[in-house]
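JOB MANIFEST
job_type = single_chain_structure
chain_count = 1
residues = 96
[input]
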Amino acid sequence: MPIYVLLSRLTDEGAKTIKDKPERIKEVNKEIEAFGAKVLHQYATLGRYDFVNIVEAQDALAIARVSVELASRGTVKMETLTAIPIEEFVARIKHR
């Protein structure tokens, strides 16, 4: 199944929500699964992004739904990247 990297930045409202109720992060992970994706790894980060999530989803449309659903709440701004396993990348480059 394809892997995606979700880079997220909290809005002011999102930061307040996390401060008041940090367990909300795990609740959102369950919602992501209900949208058709699965969080494989999750990190809180310092710097430009507040969270980095490694997510598995059926296809780009499924991950697009996750991004739209979460961003529409106004608590987070997201950037989504497609991740290609390095073995697949190397194999594809070799066969050219």
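[summary]
DSSP finds four helices and four strands in the chain.
The chain has a mean pLDDT of 94.
exit_status = 0
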